[in-house]
Design a protein that fits this description.
Number of domains of chain A: 2
Order of helices and strands of chain A: HHEEHEEEHEHEHEEEHEEHEHHHHHH
Structural class of chain A: alpha+beta
Oligomer: heterodimer
Number of strands of chain B: 10
Distance between the termini of chain B: 25 Å
Number of domains of chain B: 1
Radius of gyration of chain B: 18 Å
Strand order of the largest sheet of chain B: 6-7-8-3-9-10
Strand content of chain B: 25-35%
Distance between the termini of chain A: 24 Å
CATH architecture of chain B: 3-Layer(aba) Sandwich
CATH class of chain B: Alpha Beta
Helix content of chain B: 25-40%
CATH topology of chain B: Rossmann fold
Largest sheet of chain B: 6 strands, mixed
Number of helices of chain B: 8
Chain lengths: ~375, ~230
Protein backbone atom coordinates (compact mmCIF):
# COMPACT_ATOMS: atom_id res chain seq x y z
CA UNK A 1 0.00 0.00 0.00
CA UNK A 2 1.41 3.36 -1.03
CA UNK A 3 0.88 6.67 0.77
CA UNK A 4 -1.70 7.61 -1.87
CA UNK A 5 -3.40 4.24 -1.49
CA UNK A 6 -3.54 4.76 2.25
CA UNK A 7 -5.05 8.21 1.82
CA UNK A 8 -7.42 6.91 -0.87
CA UNK A 9 -8.80 4.15 1.38
CA UNK A 10 -9.28 6.63 4.18
CA UNK A 11 -11.09 9.04 1.88
CA UNK A 12 -13.39 6.37 0.49
CA UNK A 13 -14.21 4.97 3.92
CA UNK A 14 -15.55 8.36 5.03
CA UNK A 15 -17.37 9.18 1.81
CA UNK A 16 -20.00 11.41 3.41
CA UNK A 17 -17.32 13.60 4.95
CA UNK A 18 -15.52 13.51 1.62
CA UNK A 19 -18.64 14.75 -0.16
CA UNK A 20 -19.14 17.47 2.44
CA UNK A 21 -15.62 18.62 1.69
CA UNK A 22 -15.70 18.18 -2.08
CA UNK A 23 -18.98 19.91 -2.84
CA UNK A 24 -18.39 23.30 -1.18
CA UNK A 25 -14.76 23.10 -2.27
CA UNK A 26 -15.75 22.73 -5.91
CA UNK A 27 -18.31 25.54 -5.63
CA UNK A 28 -15.79 27.79 -3.86
CA UNK A 29 -13.12 27.29 -6.51
CA UNK A 30 -15.69 27.66 -9.28
CA UNK A 31 -16.49 31.07 -7.82
CA UNK A 32 -12.81 31.80 -7.38
CA UNK A 33 -12.14 31.07 -11.06
CA UNK A 34 -15.00 33.26 -12.25
CA UNK A 35 -14.12 36.10 -9.87
CA UNK A 36 -10.43 36.05 -10.70
CA UNK A 37 -11.10 35.95 -14.44
CA UNK A 38 -13.60 38.79 -14.07
CA UNK A 39 -11.18 40.82 -11.96
CA UNK A 40 -8.35 40.46 -14.46
CA UNK A 41 -10.51 41.19 -17.48
CA UNK A 42 -12.50 43.99 -15.83
CA UNK A 43 -11.58 47.21 -17.65
CA UNK A 44 -8.64 45.49 -19.25
CA UNK A 45 -9.08 47.24 -22.58
CA UNK A 46 -6.14 49.44 -23.23
CA UNK A 47 -2.51 48.74 -23.54
CA UNK A 48 -0.03 50.73 -21.49
CA UNK A 49 2.83 49.67 -23.71
CA UNK A 50 1.33 51.44 -26.71
CA UNK A 51 2.13 54.93 -25.30
CA UNK A 52 -1.44 56.04 -25.93
CA UNK A 53 -2.89 58.66 -23.64
CA UNK A 54 -6.54 59.58 -23.31
CA UNK A 55 -7.75 63.12 -22.73
CA UNK A 56 -11.20 63.67 -21.24
CA UNK A 57 -13.00 66.50 -19.48
CA UNK A 58 -11.60 67.21 -16.04
CA UNK A 59 -15.19 67.38 -14.79
CA UNK A 60 -15.70 63.72 -15.56
CA UNK A 61 -15.62 61.11 -18.22
CA UNK A 62 -19.25 61.58 -19.21
CA UNK A 63 -18.82 65.31 -19.80
CA UNK A 64 -18.06 65.99 -23.49
CA UNK A 65 -15.27 68.20 -24.77
CA UNK A 66 -15.68 70.69 -27.62
CA UNK A 67 -14.42 69.47 -31.00
CA UNK A 68 -12.21 72.57 -31.11
CA UNK A 69 -10.07 70.98 -28.40
CA UNK A 70 -9.01 68.33 -30.90
CA UNK A 71 -7.72 70.90 -33.38
CA UNK A 72 -5.90 72.81 -30.62
CA UNK A 73 -4.43 69.66 -29.17
CA UNK A 74 -2.93 68.72 -32.52
CA UNK A 75 -0.92 71.95 -32.35
CA UNK A 76 0.78 71.08 -29.06
CA UNK A 77 4.44 70.40 -29.66
CA UNK A 78 4.64 67.22 -27.56
CA UNK A 79 1.76 65.55 -29.42
CA UNK A 80 2.49 63.20 -32.31
CA UNK A 81 -0.70 61.59 -33.62
CA UNK A 82 -4.19 62.17 -32.24
CA UNK A 83 -7.76 61.18 -32.89
CA UNK A 84 -11.22 61.54 -31.40
CA UNK A 85 -13.93 59.16 -30.27
CA UNK A 86 -17.32 59.23 -28.58
CA UNK A 87 -19.23 56.51 -26.85
CA UNK A 88 -22.18 55.43 -28.95
CA UNK A 89 -23.41 52.32 -27.18
CA UNK A 90 -27.01 51.25 -27.83
CA UNK A 91 -28.36 47.75 -28.28
CA UNK A 92 -29.30 45.36 -31.04
CA UNK A 93 -32.97 44.27 -31.11
CA UNK A 94 -33.26 43.76 -27.34
CA UNK A 95 -31.80 45.74 -24.43
CA UNK A 96 -29.90 42.64 -23.25
CA UNK A 97 -27.87 42.79 -26.48
CA UNK A 98 -26.00 45.88 -25.39
CA UNK A 99 -23.29 47.00 -27.78
CA UNK A 100 -19.80 48.30 -27.28
CA UNK A 101 -20.06 50.85 -30.12
CA UNK A 102 -17.67 53.77 -30.61
CA UNK A 103 -17.97 56.69 -32.98
CA UNK A 104 -14.52 57.55 -34.37
CA UNK A 105 -12.79 59.71 -36.93
CA UNK A 106 -11.66 56.69 -38.99
CA UNK A 107 -8.49 57.88 -40.66
CA UNK A 108 -6.85 59.54 -37.67
CA UNK A 109 -8.13 56.80 -35.37
CA UNK A 110 -6.49 54.07 -37.41
CA UNK A 111 -3.25 56.03 -37.35
CA UNK A 112 -3.25 55.65 -33.61
CA UNK A 113 -4.76 52.15 -33.35
CA UNK A 114 -3.88 50.62 -36.71
CA UNK A 115 -1.26 48.26 -35.30
CA UNK A 116 -3.82 46.66 -33.01
CA UNK A 117 -6.05 45.37 -35.80
CA UNK A 118 -5.89 43.49 -39.07
CA UNK A 119 -8.27 45.17 -41.52
CA UNK A 120 -8.71 43.96 -45.07
CA UNK A 121 -8.10 46.94 -47.44
CA UNK A 122 -11.43 46.33 -49.19
CA UNK A 123 -13.22 46.44 -45.84
CA UNK A 124 -11.44 49.64 -44.90
CA UNK A 125 -12.24 51.19 -48.26
CA UNK A 126 -15.88 50.21 -47.92
CA UNK A 127 -16.02 51.72 -44.43
CA UNK A 128 -14.25 54.97 -45.33
CA UNK A 129 -16.40 55.56 -48.40
CA UNK A 130 -19.75 55.29 -46.64
CA UNK A 131 -20.58 57.40 -43.56
CA UNK A 132 -23.55 55.14 -42.77
CA UNK A 133 -21.29 52.09 -42.61
CA UNK A 134 -19.90 50.44 -39.55
CA UNK A 135 -16.90 48.16 -39.10
CA UNK A 136 -17.41 45.27 -36.72
CA UNK A 137 -14.92 43.30 -34.63
CA UNK A 138 -14.77 39.54 -35.25
CA UNK A 139 -16.06 38.60 -31.80
CA UNK A 140 -19.09 40.88 -32.06
CA UNK A 141 -19.87 39.79 -35.63
CA UNK A 142 -19.86 36.16 -34.53
CA UNK A 143 -21.99 36.95 -31.50
CA UNK A 144 -24.81 38.33 -33.63
CA UNK A 145 -24.16 36.37 -36.81
CA UNK A 146 -23.53 39.55 -38.81
CA UNK A 147 -22.12 39.42 -42.34
CA UNK A 148 -20.63 42.18 -44.52
CA UNK A 149 -23.42 43.98 -46.37
CA UNK A 150 -26.03 43.35 -43.66
CA UNK A 151 -28.12 46.36 -42.72
CA UNK A 152 -28.28 46.64 -38.96
CA UNK A 153 -30.48 48.86 -36.83
CA UNK A 154 -29.04 49.95 -33.47
CA UNK A 155 -31.43 51.30 -30.86
CA UNK A 156 -30.00 54.06 -28.72
CA UNK A 157 -32.30 55.42 -26.04
CA UNK A 158 -29.64 57.69 -24.52
CA UNK A 159 -28.52 59.43 -27.68
CA UNK A 160 -31.57 60.48 -29.66
CA UNK A 161 -31.44 61.45 -33.31
CA UNK A 162 -32.23 65.01 -34.37
CA UNK A 163 -35.39 63.70 -36.03
CA UNK A 164 -36.54 62.24 -32.72
CA UNK A 165 -35.89 58.62 -33.62
CA UNK A 166 -33.93 56.15 -31.53
CA UNK A 167 -33.02 53.71 -34.31
CA UNK A 168 -29.72 54.21 -36.09
CA UNK A 169 -29.28 52.22 -39.28
CA UNK A 170 -25.88 51.05 -40.46
CA UNK A 171 -24.51 48.92 -43.28
CA UNK A 172 -21.83 46.50 -42.21
CA UNK A 173 -18.76 47.37 -44.27
CA UNK A 174 -16.86 44.38 -42.99
CA UNK A 175 -15.25 42.60 -40.10
CA UNK A 176 -11.83 43.34 -38.59
CA UNK A 177 -9.58 41.03 -36.59
CA UNK A 178 -7.34 41.67 -33.61
CA UNK A 179 -3.63 41.70 -34.45
CA UNK A 180 -3.20 39.11 -31.66
CA UNK A 181 -5.55 36.75 -29.85
CA UNK A 182 -5.35 38.93 -26.74
CA UNK A 183 -6.87 41.96 -28.45
CA UNK A 184 -10.57 42.31 -27.83
CA UNK A 185 -12.79 42.53 -30.91
CA UNK A 186 -16.17 42.57 -29.22
CA UNK A 187 -17.03 46.08 -30.40
CA UNK A 188 -17.80 48.11 -33.51
CA UNK A 189 -16.86 51.45 -35.04
CA UNK A 190 -19.17 54.01 -36.66
CA UNK A 191 -18.34 57.37 -38.26
CA UNK A 192 -18.06 60.26 -35.80
CA UNK A 193 -19.08 62.82 -38.43
CA UNK A 194 -22.35 61.11 -39.15
CA UNK A 195 -23.02 60.50 -35.45
CA UNK A 196 -22.28 64.16 -34.66
CA UNK A 197 -24.52 65.53 -37.35
CA UNK A 198 -27.45 63.24 -36.67
CA UNK A 199 -27.70 63.51 -32.90
CA UNK A 200 -30.17 65.85 -31.23
CA UNK A 201 -27.87 67.29 -28.58
CA UNK A 202 -24.20 67.81 -27.77
CA UNK A 203 -23.31 68.53 -31.37
CA UNK A 204 -19.70 69.46 -32.10
CA UNK A 205 -18.49 67.72 -29.01
CA UNK A 206 -16.45 64.59 -28.56
CA UNK A 207 -16.09 62.02 -25.83
CA UNK A 208 -12.34 61.74 -25.62
CA UNK A 209 -9.14 62.40 -27.52
CA UNK A 210 -6.55 59.68 -27.89
CA UNK A 211 -3.00 60.77 -28.66
CA UNK A 212 0.51 59.44 -28.94
CA UNK A 213 3.60 61.52 -28.17
CA UNK A 214 5.94 63.04 -30.70
CA UNK A 215 9.20 61.14 -31.14
CA UNK A 216 11.38 61.33 -28.05
CA UNK A 217 8.59 62.64 -25.80
CA UNK A 218 7.50 60.71 -22.77
CA UNK A 219 3.73 60.04 -22.89
CA UNK A 220 3.30 61.27 -19.32
CA UNK A 221 5.06 64.52 -20.20
CA UNK A 222 2.77 64.84 -23.21
CA UNK A 223 -0.27 64.35 -20.98
CA UNK A 224 0.92 67.06 -18.61
CA UNK A 225 1.52 69.40 -21.55
CA UNK A 226 -2.02 68.79 -22.84
CA UNK A 227 -3.64 69.41 -19.48
CA UNK A 228 -1.50 72.52 -18.93
CA UNK A 229 -2.55 73.80 -22.35
CA UNK A 230 -6.26 73.56 -21.53
CA UNK A 231 -5.89 74.57 -17.88
CA UNK A 232 -7.08 78.10 -18.47
CA UNK A 233 -10.03 77.18 -20.72
CA UNK A 234 -13.64 76.62 -19.71
CA UNK A 235 -13.28 72.92 -20.58
CA UNK A 236 -10.24 71.82 -18.65
CA UNK A 237 -8.90 68.35 -19.37
CA UNK A 238 -7.34 65.41 -17.64
CA UNK A 239 -5.03 63.11 -19.55
CA UNK A 240 -4.25 59.63 -18.36
CA UNK A 241 -2.99 56.29 -19.63
CA UNK A 242 -5.27 54.21 -21.76
CA UNK A 243 -5.61 51.53 -19.10
CA UNK A 244 -6.66 54.04 -16.44
CA UNK A 245 -9.17 55.47 -18.87
CA UNK A 246 -10.61 52.05 -19.67
CA UNK A 247 -10.97 51.26 -16.01
CA UNK A 248 -12.70 54.57 -15.38
CA UNK A 249 -14.93 53.83 -18.33
CA UNK A 250 -16.13 50.48 -17.12
CA UNK A 251 -16.51 51.99 -13.66
CA UNK A 252 -19.78 53.35 -15.04
CA UNK A 253 -21.00 49.83 -14.34
CA UNK A 254 -18.83 49.73 -11.26
CA UNK A 255 -21.47 49.66 -8.57
CA UNK A 256 -23.07 46.57 -9.98
CA UNK A 257 -19.70 44.94 -10.51
CA UNK A 258 -18.60 45.84 -6.98
CA UNK A 259 -21.76 44.44 -5.42
CA UNK A 260 -21.40 41.27 -7.47
CA UNK A 261 -17.78 40.95 -6.42
CA UNK A 262 -18.61 41.50 -2.76
CA UNK A 263 -21.49 39.02 -2.71
CA UNK A 264 -19.58 36.33 -4.55
CA UNK A 265 -16.48 37.08 -2.49
CA UNK A 266 -18.43 36.64 0.74
CA UNK A 267 -19.84 33.35 -0.57
CA UNK A 268 -16.34 32.23 -1.49
CA UNK A 269 -14.93 33.00 1.95
CA UNK A 270 -17.87 31.25 3.65
CA UNK A 271 -17.37 28.15 1.56
CA UNK A 272 -13.64 28.11 2.22
CA UNK A 273 -14.37 28.33 5.95
CA UNK A 274 -16.68 25.32 5.65
CA UNK A 275 -13.87 23.43 3.93
CA UNK A 276 -11.39 24.47 6.60
CA UNK A 277 -13.63 23.57 9.55
CA UNK A 278 -14.64 20.21 8.01
CA UNK A 279 -10.99 19.41 7.52
CA UNK A 280 -10.06 20.38 11.05
CA UNK A 281 -12.93 18.33 12.49
CA UNK A 282 -12.01 15.32 10.36
CA UNK A 283 -8.46 15.37 11.67
CA UNK A 284 -9.64 15.66 15.25
CA UNK A 285 -11.80 12.58 14.74
CA UNK A 286 -8.82 10.71 13.38
CA UNK A 287 -6.81 11.09 16.57
CA UNK A 288 -7.24 7.37 17.37
CA UNK A 289 -5.80 6.44 13.96
CA UNK A 290 -2.89 8.77 14.55
CA UNK A 291 -2.27 7.08 17.92
CA UNK A 292 -2.24 3.67 16.22
CA UNK A 293 0.26 4.83 13.61
CA UNK A 294 2.50 6.27 16.31
CA UNK A 295 2.26 3.03 18.24
CA UNK A 296 3.33 1.09 15.17
CA UNK A 297 6.43 3.24 14.86
CA UNK A 298 5.44 5.75 12.21
CA UNK A 299 7.44 8.95 12.61
CA UNK A 300 5.75 12.29 13.22
CA UNK A 301 6.84 13.49 9.79
CA UNK A 302 5.34 10.49 8.09
CA UNK A 303 2.08 10.75 10.00
CA UNK A 304 1.85 14.46 9.22
CA UNK A 305 2.31 13.66 5.54
CA UNK A 306 -0.73 11.32 5.72
CA UNK A 307 -2.86 13.61 7.81
CA UNK A 308 -2.10 16.79 5.89
CA UNK A 309 -1.84 15.02 2.53
CA UNK A 310 -5.43 13.85 2.72
CA UNK A 311 -7.10 17.30 2.98
CA UNK A 312 -4.66 18.75 0.49
CA UNK A 313 -5.57 16.01 -1.98
CA UNK A 314 -9.29 16.48 -1.36
CA UNK A 315 -9.15 20.25 -1.69
CA UNK A 316 -7.16 19.85 -4.90
CA UNK A 317 -9.68 17.42 -6.38
CA UNK A 318 -12.56 19.73 -5.44
CA UNK A 319 -10.70 22.84 -6.52
CA UNK A 320 -9.65 21.50 -9.90
CA UNK A 321 -13.21 20.36 -10.55
CA UNK A 322 -14.42 23.85 -9.58
CA UNK A 323 -11.90 25.55 -11.84
CA UNK A 324 -12.86 23.26 -14.72
CA UNK A 325 -16.50 24.20 -14.17
CA UNK A 326 -15.54 27.89 -14.06
CA UNK A 327 -13.66 27.52 -17.34
CA UNK A 328 -16.73 26.05 -19.01
CA UNK A 329 -19.00 28.75 -17.60
CA UNK A 330 -16.64 31.58 -18.55
CA UNK A 331 -16.23 30.21 -22.04
CA UNK A 332 -19.98 29.99 -22.45
CA UNK A 333 -20.69 33.50 -21.23
CA UNK A 334 -17.65 35.48 -22.37
CA UNK A 335 -19.74 37.41 -24.88
CA UNK A 336 -22.16 38.54 -22.20
CA UNK A 337 -19.21 40.03 -20.33
CA UNK A 338 -17.65 41.52 -23.46
CA UNK A 339 -18.60 45.13 -22.75
CA UNK A 340 -17.25 45.28 -19.18
CA UNK A 341 -14.73 42.44 -19.06
CA UNK A 342 -13.51 41.86 -22.60
CA UNK A 343 -11.43 38.79 -23.27
CA UNK A 344 -12.51 37.23 -19.95
CA UNK A 345 -10.83 33.85 -19.60
CA UNK A 346 -9.54 31.42 -17.03
CA UNK A 347 -5.88 32.10 -17.69
CA UNK A 348 -2.98 29.78 -16.77
CA UNK A 349 -2.00 32.33 -14.12
CA UNK A 350 -5.43 32.06 -12.46
CA UNK A 351 -5.26 28.27 -12.59
CA UNK A 352 -1.77 28.29 -11.08
CA UNK A 353 -2.88 30.69 -8.35
CA UNK A 354 -5.88 28.45 -7.71
CA UNK A 355 -3.76 25.32 -7.35
CA UNK A 356 -1.33 27.12 -5.04
CA UNK A 357 -4.17 28.37 -2.88
CA UNK A 358 -5.62 24.82 -2.76
CA UNK A 359 -2.36 23.50 -1.36
CA UNK A 360 -2.17 26.43 1.05
CA UNK A 361 -5.79 25.96 2.17
CA UNK A 362 -5.30 22.21 2.68
CA UNK A 363 -2.17 22.79 4.72
CA UNK A 364 -3.48 25.76 6.71
CA UNK A 365 -6.73 23.98 7.58
CA UNK A 366 -4.96 20.84 8.73
CA UNK A 367 -1.54 21.75 10.06
CA UNK A 368 -2.59 22.88 13.53
CA UNK A 369 -5.05 20.06 14.35
CA UNK A 370 -2.63 17.58 12.79
CA UNK A 371 0.25 18.91 14.86
CA UNK A 372 -1.84 18.69 18.03
CA UNK A 373 -2.96 15.15 17.26
CA UNK A 374 0.55 13.98 16.44
CA UNK A 375 1.88 15.40 19.68
CA UNK A 376 -0.80 13.85 21.88
CA UNK A 377 0.62 11.22 24.20
CA UNK A 378 0.51 7.92 22.32
CA UNK A 379 -0.24 5.75 25.32
CA UNK A 380 -3.14 7.99 26.32
CA UNK A 381 -4.67 7.82 22.85
CA UNK A 382 -4.26 4.05 22.63
CA UNK A 383 -5.83 3.60 26.05
CA UNK A 384 -8.81 5.74 25.02
CA UNK A 385 -9.44 3.83 21.78
CA UNK B 1 23.83 -6.58 35.55
CA UNK B 2 22.01 -8.05 32.57
CA UNK B 3 22.44 -11.77 32.13
CA UNK B 4 23.29 -13.21 28.76
CA UNK B 5 19.73 -14.32 28.16
CA UNK B 6 17.89 -11.21 29.38
CA UNK B 7 16.09 -9.50 26.54
CA UNK B 8 14.30 -6.85 28.58
CA UNK B 9 15.84 -5.21 31.62
CA UNK B 10 14.08 -2.59 33.71
CA UNK B 11 16.34 -1.11 36.40
CA UNK B 12 15.23 1.09 39.30
CA UNK B 13 12.44 2.47 37.17
CA UNK B 14 10.30 5.19 38.68
CA UNK B 15 7.19 6.77 37.21
CA UNK B 16 4.93 9.51 38.48
CA UNK B 17 2.00 11.22 36.82
CA UNK B 18 1.32 14.87 37.35
CA UNK B 19 -2.25 15.98 37.83
CA UNK B 20 -2.25 19.72 38.23
CA UNK B 21 0.18 20.36 41.06
CA UNK B 22 -0.20 16.90 42.49
CA UNK B 23 2.29 14.17 41.67
CA UNK B 24 0.82 10.69 41.63
CA UNK B 25 3.46 7.96 42.04
CA UNK B 26 2.87 4.83 39.97
CA UNK B 27 5.96 2.80 40.78
CA UNK B 28 9.41 3.42 42.15
CA UNK B 29 12.72 1.56 42.06
CA UNK B 30 11.15 -1.18 40.02
CA UNK B 31 13.24 -3.98 38.53
CA UNK B 32 12.30 -6.58 35.96
CA UNK B 33 14.22 -8.90 33.69
CA UNK B 34 12.68 -10.93 30.90
CA UNK B 35 14.67 -13.58 29.06
CA UNK B 36 14.65 -13.76 25.29
CA UNK B 37 11.84 -15.95 24.05
CA UNK B 38 10.04 -15.86 27.41
CA UNK B 39 6.30 -15.30 27.85
CA UNK B 40 5.51 -13.36 31.02
CA UNK B 41 2.33 -11.89 32.37
CA UNK B 42 1.82 -8.81 34.49
CA UNK B 43 -1.25 -8.97 36.73
CA UNK B 44 -2.61 -6.65 39.32
CA UNK B 45 -5.45 -4.32 40.26
CA UNK B 46 -6.46 -1.43 38.03
CA UNK B 47 -4.15 1.55 38.37
CA UNK B 48 -1.33 -0.54 39.80
CA UNK B 49 1.02 0.50 36.99
CA UNK B 50 1.22 -2.69 34.93
CA UNK B 51 0.09 -1.02 31.67
CA UNK B 52 2.41 1.90 32.36
CA UNK B 53 5.33 -0.49 32.70
CA UNK B 54 4.29 -2.28 29.51
CA UNK B 55 4.15 1.06 27.65
CA UNK B 56 7.54 2.07 29.07
CA UNK B 57 9.07 -1.16 27.76
CA UNK B 58 7.49 -0.45 24.36
CA UNK B 59 8.75 3.13 24.27
CA UNK B 60 5.20 4.50 24.31
CA UNK B 61 5.68 6.19 27.66
CA UNK B 62 8.76 7.55 29.39
CA UNK B 63 9.84 6.71 32.91
CA UNK B 64 11.03 9.47 35.25
CA UNK B 65 13.99 7.60 36.68
CA UNK B 66 15.93 4.38 36.15
CA UNK B 67 16.40 2.75 32.79
CA UNK B 68 14.73 0.43 30.31
CA UNK B 69 16.89 -1.69 28.03
CA UNK B 70 15.73 -4.00 25.29
CA UNK B 71 18.12 -6.39 23.62
CA UNK B 72 21.02 -4.46 25.13
CA UNK B 73 19.80 -1.04 23.94
CA UNK B 74 18.80 1.55 26.53
CA UNK B 75 15.66 3.04 24.98
CA UNK B 76 14.71 5.67 27.56
CA UNK B 77 17.51 7.89 26.25
CA UNK B 78 16.15 7.81 22.69
CA UNK B 79 14.64 10.89 21.06
CA UNK B 80 11.14 10.70 19.57
CA UNK B 81 12.27 9.89 16.05
CA UNK B 82 14.76 7.22 17.07
CA UNK B 83 12.21 5.70 19.42
CA UNK B 84 9.64 5.43 16.62
CA UNK B 85 12.19 3.78 14.38
CA UNK B 86 13.22 1.38 17.13
CA UNK B 87 9.61 0.51 17.93
CA UNK B 88 8.83 -0.25 14.29
CA UNK B 89 11.64 -2.83 14.21
CA UNK B 90 11.46 -4.27 17.69
CA UNK B 91 7.93 -4.16 19.10
CA UNK B 92 4.61 -5.62 18.09
CA UNK B 93 1.62 -4.23 19.97
CA UNK B 94 -1.66 -5.99 20.73
CA UNK B 95 -4.39 -4.14 22.62
CA UNK B 96 -7.64 -5.01 24.33
CA UNK B 97 -9.66 -2.85 21.94
CA UNK B 98 -7.71 -4.12 18.91
CA UNK B 99 -6.80 -0.61 17.72
CA UNK B 100 -7.35 -1.37 14.06
CA UNK B 101 -7.71 1.39 11.49
CA UNK B 102 -11.44 1.38 10.62
CA UNK B 103 -10.83 2.79 7.14
CA UNK B 104 -8.54 -0.04 6.08
CA UNK B 105 -9.33 -3.65 5.29
CA UNK B 106 -7.82 -6.44 7.39
CA UNK B 107 -5.16 -6.74 4.67
CA UNK B 108 -4.41 -3.01 4.85
CA UNK B 109 -4.18 -3.11 8.63
CA UNK B 110 -1.79 -6.04 8.60
CA UNK B 111 0.31 -4.40 5.90
CA UNK B 112 0.68 -1.10 7.82
CA UNK B 113 3.99 -1.88 9.60
CA UNK B 114 5.49 -2.99 6.28
CA UNK B 115 5.05 0.56 4.97
CA UNK B 116 8.00 1.38 7.20
CA UNK B 117 10.21 -1.17 5.47
CA UNK B 118 11.86 -1.23 2.06
CA UNK B 119 10.20 -4.50 1.08
CA UNK B 120 8.85 -4.79 -2.45
CA UNK B 121 5.13 -5.04 -3.01
CA UNK B 122 5.19 -8.77 -3.83
CA UNK B 123 7.31 -9.41 -0.74
CA UNK B 124 4.88 -7.43 1.40
CA UNK B 125 2.02 -9.43 -0.06
CA UNK B 126 3.81 -12.67 0.72
CA UNK B 127 4.44 -11.58 4.32
CA UNK B 128 0.83 -10.49 4.87
CA UNK B 129 -0.46 -13.79 3.50
CA UNK B 130 2.00 -15.72 5.64
CA UNK B 131 1.01 -14.14 8.95
CA UNK B 132 -2.67 -14.18 7.99
CA UNK B 133 -2.36 -17.93 7.47
CA UNK B 134 -0.55 -18.27 10.76
CA UNK B 135 -3.33 -16.62 12.76
CA UNK B 136 -6.02 -18.13 10.51
CA UNK B 137 -7.54 -14.87 9.27
CA UNK B 138 -6.59 -15.31 5.59
CA UNK B 139 -10.24 -15.78 4.57
CA UNK B 140 -11.23 -12.33 5.92
CA UNK B 141 -8.51 -10.12 4.48
CA UNK B 142 -10.84 -8.04 2.31
CA UNK B 143 -13.11 -7.11 5.17
CA UNK B 144 -12.99 -3.96 7.25
CA UNK B 145 -12.79 -4.19 11.06
CA UNK B 146 -16.49 -3.42 11.55
CA UNK B 147 -17.29 -6.52 9.48
CA UNK B 148 -15.21 -8.80 11.70
CA UNK B 149 -15.97 -10.45 15.05
CA UNK B 150 -13.95 -9.52 18.13
CA UNK B 151 -11.83 -12.65 17.83
CA UNK B 152 -11.18 -12.00 14.15
CA UNK B 153 -10.21 -8.40 14.86
CA UNK B 154 -7.76 -9.55 17.53
CA UNK B 155 -6.25 -12.04 15.11
CA UNK B 156 -5.79 -9.22 12.61
CA UNK B 157 -4.14 -7.17 15.38
CA UNK B 158 -1.78 -10.06 16.20
CA UNK B 159 -0.99 -10.54 12.52
CA UNK B 160 -0.19 -6.82 12.28
CA UNK B 161 1.99 -7.09 15.38
CA UNK B 162 4.15 -9.87 13.93
CA UNK B 163 4.18 -9.07 10.20
CA UNK B 164 7.40 -7.05 10.43
CA UNK B 165 8.93 -9.87 12.48
CA UNK B 166 9.69 -7.92 15.68
CA UNK B 167 11.40 -9.95 18.40
CA UNK B 168 9.01 -8.74 21.13
CA UNK B 169 5.23 -8.60 21.52
CA UNK B 170 3.57 -6.40 24.10
CA UNK B 171 -0.04 -7.34 24.75
CA UNK B 172 -2.32 -5.18 26.87
CA UNK B 173 -5.38 -7.20 27.91
CA UNK B 174 -5.54 -9.04 24.57
CA UNK B 175 -8.51 -11.15 25.70
CA UNK B 176 -10.32 -8.42 27.62
CA UNK B 177 -13.15 -8.13 25.12
CA UNK B 178 -13.37 -11.75 24.03
CA UNK B 179 -15.40 -14.72 25.20
CA UNK B 180 -13.63 -17.72 26.72
CA UNK B 181 -13.53 -19.81 23.55
CA UNK B 182 -12.18 -16.98 21.45
CA UNK B 183 -9.77 -16.01 24.20
CA UNK B 184 -8.44 -19.55 24.10
CA UNK B 185 -7.79 -19.26 20.37
CA UNK B 186 -5.94 -15.97 20.84
CA UNK B 187 -3.87 -17.29 23.74
CA UNK B 188 -2.97 -20.39 21.77
CA UNK B 189 -1.72 -18.18 18.96
CA UNK B 190 0.41 -16.13 21.38
CA UNK B 191 1.78 -19.31 22.95
CA UNK B 192 2.66 -20.65 19.49
CA UNK B 193 4.42 -17.39 18.57
CA UNK B 194 6.53 -17.74 21.70
CA UNK B 195 7.27 -21.43 21.31
CA UNK B 196 7.79 -21.66 17.56
CA UNK B 197 8.96 -18.18 16.53
CA UNK B 198 10.89 -17.39 19.71
CA UNK B 199 8.99 -14.14 20.34
CA UNK B 200 9.46 -12.52 23.73
CA UNK B 201 5.95 -11.77 24.98
CA UNK B 202 4.95 -9.50 27.84
CA UNK B 203 1.24 -9.52 28.50
CA UNK B 204 -0.93 -7.51 30.89
CA UNK B 205 -4.13 -9.19 31.98
CA UNK B 206 -6.67 -9.36 34.78
CA UNK B 207 -7.64 -12.88 33.82
CA UNK B 208 -5.80 -15.65 35.73
CA UNK B 209 -6.99 -18.13 33.14
CA UNK B 210 -5.24 -16.19 30.35
CA UNK B 211 -2.23 -15.58 32.59
CA UNK B 212 -1.79 -19.30 32.92
CA UNK B 213 -0.60 -19.47 29.30
CA UNK B 214 2.55 -17.53 30.32
CA UNK B 215 5.84 -18.96 31.52
CA UNK B 216 5.89 -16.63 34.48
CA UNK B 217 3.30 -14.42 36.17
CA UNK B 218 4.21 -11.22 37.99
CA UNK B 219 1.90 -9.47 40.39
CA UNK B 220 1.82 -5.72 40.57
CA UNK B 221 0.62 -4.16 43.76
CA UNK B 222 1.28 -0.70 45.19
CA UNK B 223 4.06 -0.14 42.72
CA UNK B 224 5.87 -3.32 43.62
CA UNK B 225 6.38 -6.35 41.44
CA UNK B 226 6.46 -9.92 42.73
CA UNK B 227 6.40 -13.35 41.18
CA UNK B 228 3.06 -15.08 41.72
CA UNK B 229 3.00 -17.19 44.89
CA UNK B 230 2.17 -20.51 43.30
CA UNK B 231 5.02 -20.08 40.84
CA UNK B 232 7.41 -18.82 43.49
CA UNK B 233 6.57 -21.86 45.55
Amino acid sequence: MSVLGFIGQSVMAAWIRTLVLLLPGAIAYGLFGILAAFYLAYGATGDDTANRMITTSKTGFSQPLPVSHFRQLQQIEEVGAASIASWFGGYYREPRNSLHAIAVDPISYLEVYGDDFRIDPTVLESFLSDRTAMMVGRSMAERFGWEPGDQVSIINERIARADGGQAWSFRIAGVFEGATDQIDTSFLYVHHDRFNEARASNRDTLGWIVSTPAPGVDPIDMGQAIDAFFASTADRTTTDTERSFSQAFVAQFGDLALVTLLVLGAALVSLLMIVASTTALAIKRRSPDIGILKGLGFSHTRILSFVIGEPVLLVMIAGCAGLALAAVMISGSSESFASIAPGIALTPAISALGVLSMVALGILASVWPAWRSVNTDTATVLRQN
Amino acid sequence: MMSQQDFVTVKNAGKTYRKGRTEIPVFDALNLSVAKGAFITLMGPSGSGKSTLLHAIGGLERINSGSVSVDGTQIDAFGQSKLSNWRAKTVGLVFQSFNLMPSLTAYGNIELPLMLTTLSRPERHRRVQEVADLVRIDHRLKHRPNELSGGEQQRVAIARAIVADPPMLLCDEPTGELDRATSGEVMNILRTLCDELDKTIIMVTHDPWAAAYADRVYHFDKGQLSVAEEEAA
